[in-house]
Amino acid sequence: MSSPQNIAPLVTKLARRDALSVVEREALSGLLGPERAVKAGGVLIAPGDRPSYSTFLVSGFCARFNLTTAGGRQLTEINVAGDFVDLHSMLMRQMDHGVVALDDCVVAYAQHADLRRLTEQHPHLGRLLWLETVIDGAIHRQWLVTMGQQDAASRLAHLVCELYRRLEAAGLASDGQLKIPMTQTDLGDVLGLTPIHVNRVLMELRREGLIAWKGGQVTIPDWDRLAAFALFDPTYLRLQRDTV
Known about the structure:
Elements: H1 4-17, H2 22-29, E1 35-38, E2 43-45, E3 53-59, E4 61-67, E5 73-80, H3 89-92, E6 98-101, E7 105-111, H4 112-121, H5 123-149, H6 152-169, E8 177-179, H7 184-191, H8 195-207, E9 212-214, E10 217-219, H9 223-230
Antiparallel strand pairs: 1-7, 2-6, 3-7, 4-5, 4-6, 8-10, 9-10
Helix pairs in contact: 1-2, 4-5, 6-8, 6-9, 7-8
């Protein structure tokens, strides 16, 4: 079963949104099964799957994806450590999208039967996990807005801002430093750009002094300046403390 260490990013994130009791923390610590390593490029969930469990990302980056009949791929959300990549599968049953590892990941599974039991025995935790799926929807909506209303450079800047705040909420980023282990092809599949265009946009952001990006390690020299350039408002991430 799970250890307090592998569930820690989720506990940190949930506790940022509302207080967690000792009993609730213990219930979460016993939720996950054994860890499993997944290599970069590995498919965690395929479109059409009917999983009997939800997958929790212990470490690494993965992404939800949809494929077109012509073979194109669109990444529709990035998942970071501390995320359930498919919590909604407990109700959705058959998946209409897949999940792929963007770098070497470690995952663990929560059986749907155990999740149902957890939400029945701990209604407050059930509401917090429900909030996680609601925030997934808010992220999708925000991505639609940035895709339709912002240029390529501000879209990439917005993605960096979002990932920084999400990783920070899970205790995995601080002081303007974060890791984004994504290729230019991955970034293009998020932003609707070719890898060549992504490279040009990265050069523009570096030239303007908005970010430094080397080997997946990203530095934000001036948060306020980057957030202003990206038109970033973190409200949709619901990072504030509220009673749920």
